[in-house]
Amino acid sequence: MDNEIVKGMSSMLQVLTKQKRLKQWINEIQPISKKGRLATYIPQLGTANPDALGIVICPLDGDVLAEGNTSTPFTLQSISKVITLALALMDHGPDKVFSHVGMEPTGDPFNSIVKLEMMKPSKPLNPMINAGAIAVSSLIKGKNADEKFERILDLTRKLLNNPGITYSEDVYWSEWETGDRNRALAYFMRETKVIEGDVEEIVSLYFKHCSIEVTCFDLAQLGYVLANYGRNQRGEQLMPADVTRVVHSFMVTCGMYNGSGEFAIKVGIPAKSGVAGGILASVPQKMGIGVYGPALNEKGNSICGVLLLQKLSEAWNLSIF
Ligand code: GLN
């Protein structure tokens, strides 16, 4: 048989085997969603199907793999912090950004207020916790709130390779109505001069980018761009490689909040979670991964999503450590 045909058949077989393994893992892990909880503190997120679980893998070379609930839309929530950090770094460079927000993990829950008062000088510890992300949102350039959001949306559409991306008004208003803790963080930070300007406007911008709606396919695309040091599949450089280095570092040290250490040991892949149940993962120079499973563990990370990534990392030897 022709060499090329043999090669083609063997790579098809590999894809089928991988696909079968993904399906098995999903079937095995999915019942564990019963042990997790939806993020009902944002009431609209409480309407999700808690048993949903899906994964999309977009390798730098090879075919896209998709299994489970891959077309269910969900909101980025904290995963948007990766995009706003990248945009702020492109807008201002690292010196300015890191004069407003630190580079260290917290060991506290994502919405904790406690360290804001303890740190001297007062500065949120990193851009992946709520306080840090609100400080980053306050830095996004634009002549008014609408333009700032349009710039975030525009970059998101490019990174996700999906011009149809928009935000969920239902989730946005649900957060707006219940987001007093985030307002408290922001007012505290204005008093300590970490942020300046209209706090309500800054917090609304933050709620809006958290409410951007995506699927696992979109997340896998973003993971691909990060894994490919800023270039998309068409070879366009969407962000400088230096920015992806900073983003990857934060994903490893703070991306899974106060579960980041355990995740680094058990999974070892740069990742960022959101309370709607999404996990963005990027294996540098190998693949982008998007996972969705809205039932969360006690740290606010997708309970099944974490287990699925652990299986994948162990079986395919993906840990970067
Ligand atoms: N919008 C959410 C909040 O502010 C984001 C938190 C998260 O995804 N961990 O609480």
Written overview of the protein:
49% of the residues lie in helices and 9% in strands. The longest helix has 27 residues, at 3-29. The chain has a five-stranded antiparallel β-sheet with strand order 2-1-7-6-5. The protein has a two-stranded antiparallel sheet with strand order 3-4. It has 321 residues and is an alpha+beta fold. α2 crosses α3, α6 runs parallel beside α9 and α7 packs across α9. The chain has 13 helices and seven strands. A hairpin with a 5-residue loop joins β1 (54-59) and β2. It has two domains: 30-74 and 215-316, DD-peptidase/beta-lactamase superfamily (Beta-lactamase, 3-Layer(aba) Sandwich); 78-210, DD-peptidase/beta-lactamase superfamily (Beta-lactamase, 3-Layer(aba) Sandwich). The protein has helices at residues 3-29, 80-92, 94-100, 114-118, 130-137, 145-160, 169-178, 180-191, 199-210, 216-227, 241-254, 260-266, 303-316, and strands at residues 54-59, 65-68, 74-75, 213-214, 271-273, 278-283, 287-292. The structure holds glutamine (GLN). Glutamine is lined by residues 77-78, 110-111, 130, 175, 182, 210, 274-275, 300.
